[in-house]
Design a protein that fits this description.
The chain is 41% helix and 15% strand. The protein has 15 helices and twelve strands. Helix 7 links the parallel strand 4 and strand 5 (177-181).
Length: 391
Amino acid sequence: MADWKTRTKLIHAGARRSQYGEMSEAIYLTQGFVYESAEQAEARFIESGPDEFIYARYGNPTVRMFEERMAAIEGTEDAFATASGMAAVNGALTSMLKAGDHVVAARALFGSCLYVLEILGRFGVDVTLVDGTDPDQWRAAMRPDTKAVFLESVSNPTLEVIDVKSVCEIAHGVGAIVIVDNVFATPTFSKAVELGADVIVYSATKHIDGGGRCLGGVVCGSKAYIRKVLEPYLKHTGAALSPFNAWVMLKGLETLDLRVKAQAANSLALAEALEGHEKLARVIYPGLRGHAQHGIAMEQMGAGGTVVTLEVKGGQAGAFRFLNALEIVKISNNLGDAKSIITHPATTTHQRLPADQKAMLGITPGLVRLSVGIEDAGDLLADLRQALDAV
């Protein structure tokens, strides 16, 4: 399997078949497992083998297939699946931190990620936020007691691209573990492991599912981290992924590469066509040459991703008129779907942030985040243009 290309791994990695030889992965919809003897139960609780399970909160055959497939395509030794992307973020951080530890994080994060850092602060973890695009700020924030560094490789929703390799070199200089939320990069364009990241987190709810059906998350990393640090925390705190949801994610992975590449191609076409539009103050897309981190994006991902951020003139009123005039593109706060989705971050995903923090991050009243789907690019462009006419 080590020699397989990504598309092959997305379909076949981690597969297990029962005695019936089913083609599609089986859904083992069970919360418990039967032992042949009391001695076997005792032995399994001491140490479980790769195909030995105890309880669905600890592991499940369908979930394990998803974990092994994710580890294979991400290039890590192991992975642990969770009930949601935020359960993965929370688990990745909380499992390794204690009161008195220091964390350095990029300030441009999804609102819920900022909330997790706020909670850690309440429990005595010292958190320092920096401009993720400035290596000097990362360097200045590091301390001997810095235990972890956390960042989104591409920030939500302003699409700042962080130089992951540089941050990893800086963080590893003080012995810190680098945790990368890689949702916007997607497993298709991810090079996080090659760039030096220790732990990679995904919301599987996004591109991995790709059809807006299920919640899920996954944490990828070394076997020592996953099994000795993360697993004890997650299995006792209950963030287990449902076997049915794991099965949906396995089906999503089969077409992930095809979908994401089509979405990225559509995104670039839309960004190029809309750049300079009279009703737009800004078009933000890492695939555009004018993007501040275009070179880093191309080096790290080889593409601009599947999200385009637009700043509509006229503030919130202009943005709302634009959103309400759309016909194909749907208003929703998810992303990574096969359908094109748009949201207004200032009043939805980042609503709870104070006004000054929104301003600092560039989340203006006119900003909208467009997650581009796999519809015909011409149809999407026509829809966006007619909606802009309403501004």
